[in-house]
Amino acid sequence: MAREQIGQHLSTAPLPPPDPTRPGPLEGLRVIELAGECAAFCGRLLADYGAEVILVEPPGGAPQRYHGPFVDGVADPERSLWFWHYHANKAGVVLDLDAADGRDRFRDLVASADIVLESEAPGRLAGLGLDDADLRPGHPGLIWCSVTPFGRDNPRAHEPATDLTVLAGGGPVWSCGYDDHAIPPVRGGGNQGFQTASVHAAIGVLVAVLHRELTGAGQLVDTSMHAAANVTTEFASYGWLVAEETVQRQTCRHASARPTQTTVATSADGRYQPTGVPPRSAKEFRILIDWIDDLGWRDEIPGVALLELAEERGGVSMADLAGNPLVAEIFGAGRDALGAIASRLTAYEFFHQGQQRGMALPVIYAPEEVMEDPHFRARGFAVTLDHEDLGRPVTYPGAPWAMDVSPWRLRRHAPRLGEDQGLLDPDLR
Prior knowledge:
This protein is an alpha/beta fold. It has 16 helices and twelve strands. The strands form four sheets. The chain has a six-stranded parallel beta sheet. Strands 7-8 form a two-stranded antiparallel ribbon. The chain has a two-stranded antiparallel ribbon with strand order 9-10. Helix 2 crosses helix 8 and helix 11 runs antiparallel to helix 12. 33% of the residues are buried.
């Protein structure tokens, strides 16, 4: 089934376009962000929901301006797609914090702000007289958010770190990869370590904003990238802490101390197809049985009788999976049935038909396919922004979540180097 045909069957109406006249929920908050890749996504989230985020770069620009890929393959610090993505919606100024004049101007800028966001090496700002302890006493409502590899006061605070070491040391890499442990574990792409820390930092900032509204007092939000990664390991950390079990990575499914059933099928069009979450409730078993019958495959797929038994029993409990052979057999029958359906349909047919029936089934997309998917189109995920520097519009990924009374909006592209230098003038602030 073509995507155009599938789009005609979507039951969810497209979300209305964002109202450009409606303020975001963080409107009125000023954030001073010291340019650094670890916290860039946090600043972007705050900016997307209305905060005024002023990115402070060093002379010559942030190193991230030189991260590829570049627009049209032209290596230029003003054409870095990495920089465009993480710093859209922000203003930008240049300050030399190693110079006395630059430090004075930074202090003046902070005095006008509600929030400072930084990911500097622990001790660097204190050595310049520009740290939380230096600036917040004269500005008691200031919220200072620090994002560092291990936290500011941790014994490991001064160890260097990268996105890879954050993911590896924090635990997610241990859980990612294939059943064949002769193959090394797999690092999640897309700066997941930095982005995970940034999301936790943004949550901390919002809690601090609520606290300030109630008390008038700001506070330090000390974000550890290592801890943020560690608390997102699902079973891995808790399994060790509670049961002293070490999970093992498994292909396309949760890492576990014990091997679980294979979840990947080869679809009719030759794509790898995850088979999603097997049924557990009576309703879910009925949905799967009806799907098999509607396809006319009852006689071709074994185990339908077990699915019907599960419906009669009122479903199965995961708590009984390890100790009850019948429950294990029923659960396996659900997984096998999904695998059989997946192997007989194209990947997209399996995904769409399952979703249409209310089952949590996925499809594996290449990045460009995401933007073309009718579900994402209906949600308004792709957003177009005019780029006068290119003379053409550019498509950006949209909001990571949509809220009906807290609008998200893409207002401007990432700042050119020093584009908003006028913000350093007190008369223009």
